[in-house]
């Protein structure tokens, strides 16, 4: 009898995880290509005084739901303000080696930590819209982070709000310009927001709140599309949208892995 009940619970758990899999199958493409030409002019002193310091990078969210420990739709559909301290875990690492295990196998092992990691990084950098797809299998110009609706989102570095926009694909999104003292100018984009609390040209410190996670635009579940694009030879696309058939070389010229970007400049 105990064995029977256990078996039934495991089946229920698998069914629930299969539902999570469907719920997190997030379809998104990125539109709106904006070009900006010409390097910034003016003295270094003037630039450093008028443009906010890059400072260092931080993750855009500080609280990640422990998706793997939630076993019902009612649990994982809760907005951020209905979750409590024990519902969150430290930000999982973006670990390419661990992404290579088929998600079904991860679920069958009931490895809570790995289920959370896989659901959190639901679409990988330049990957396909498939939880099992790795990097460089598609054209997704950024990383999708599965989060609770209403989770506060912060700027990943110091900079200035370049634009606040809305369209059918990215929904409500904020684009922030960052000027690294050695490595050039970057633009971070935060899409599908439910609300925005900054305005164009606003100066930002690393981690300063800019809005909240939502599901505006082309998405079937609350998540944050995080993208980092770079200026190349005085031209930028913010946010960059690969056209059909864009080469890997072209994509890597304009956009960088946002997680690796955050890791690289976290200390300085
Ligand atoms: Zn995305």
Low-pLDDT residue spans: 1-47
Q: What is the mean predicted local confidence, pLDDT?
A: 86
Bound molecules: zinc ion
- The ordered H/E elements are HEHEHEHHHEEEEEEEEEEHEH
Number of strands: 14
Describe the structure using short key phrases:
alpha+beta; two-stranded antiparallel ribbon; single chain; 25% strand; disordered N terminus; Glucose Permease (Domain IIA); binds zinc ion; 268 residues
Characterization of this structure:
By secondary structure, the chain is of the alpha+beta class. Helices cover 25% and strands 25% of the residues. The protein is built from 8 helices and 14 strands. The chain has helices at 2-23, 44-50, 73-76, 96-99, 103-108, 112-120, 248-254, 258-264, and strands at 35-36, 64-65, 88-89, 121-123, 143-146, 152-154, 159-167, 171-180, 184-196, 203-204, 209-213, 223-230, 236-237, 255-256. The longest helix is centred in the first third of the chain and has 22 residues, at 2-23. The protein binds zinc ion (ZN). Zinc ion (ZN) binds next to loops.
Summarize the structure.
This protein is α+β, with helices and mostly antiparallel strands and 268 residues long.
Chart the SSEs and their pairings.
Elements: H1 2-23, E1 35-36, H2 44-50, E2 64-65, H3 73-76, E3 88-89, H4 96-99, H5 103-108, H6 112-120, E4 121-123, E5 143-146, E6 152-154, E7 159-167, E8 171-180, E9 184-196, E10 203-204, E11 209-213, E12 223-230, E13 236-237, H7 248-254, E14 255-256, H8 258-264
Antiparallel strand pairs: 1-13, 2-3, 4-5, 5-12, 6-11, 7-8, 7-10, 8-9, 9-11, 9-12, 12-14
């Amino acid at each position: 009898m105990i064995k029977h009940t256990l078996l039934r619970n495991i089946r229920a758990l698998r069914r629930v995880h299969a539902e999570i899999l469907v719920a997190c199958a997030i379809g998104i493409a990125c539109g709106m290509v904006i070009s900006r030409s010409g390097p910034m002019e003016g003295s270094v002193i003037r630039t450093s005084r008028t443009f906010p310091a890059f400072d260092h990078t931080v993750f855009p969210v500080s609280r990640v739901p422990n998706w793997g420990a939630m076993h019902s739709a009612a649990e994982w559909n809760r907005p951020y303000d209905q979750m409590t301290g024990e519902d969150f875990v430290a930000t999982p690492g973006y670990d390419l080696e661990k992404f290579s295990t088929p998600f079904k196998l991860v679920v069958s092992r009931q490895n809570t930590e790995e289920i959370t990691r896989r659901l959190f990084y639901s679409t990988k950098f330049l990957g396909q819209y498939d939880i099992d797809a790795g990097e460089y299998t598609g054209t997704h110009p950024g990383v999708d982070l599965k989060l609770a609706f209403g989770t506060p989102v912060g700027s990943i570095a110091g900079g200035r709000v370049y634009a606040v926009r809305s369209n059918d694909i990215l929904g409500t999104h904020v684009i922030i310009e960052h000027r690294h003292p050695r490595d050039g100018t970057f633009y971070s984009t935060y899409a599908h927001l439910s609300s925005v609390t900054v305005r164009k040209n606003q100066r930002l410190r690393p981690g300063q709140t800019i809005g909240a996670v939502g599901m505006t635009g082309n998405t079937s579940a609350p998540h944050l599309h995080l993208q980092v694009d770079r200026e190349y030879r005085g031209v930028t696309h913010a946010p960059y949208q690969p056209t059909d058939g864009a080469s890997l070389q072209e994509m890597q010229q304009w956009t960088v892995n946002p997680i690796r970007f955050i890791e690289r400049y976290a200390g300085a």
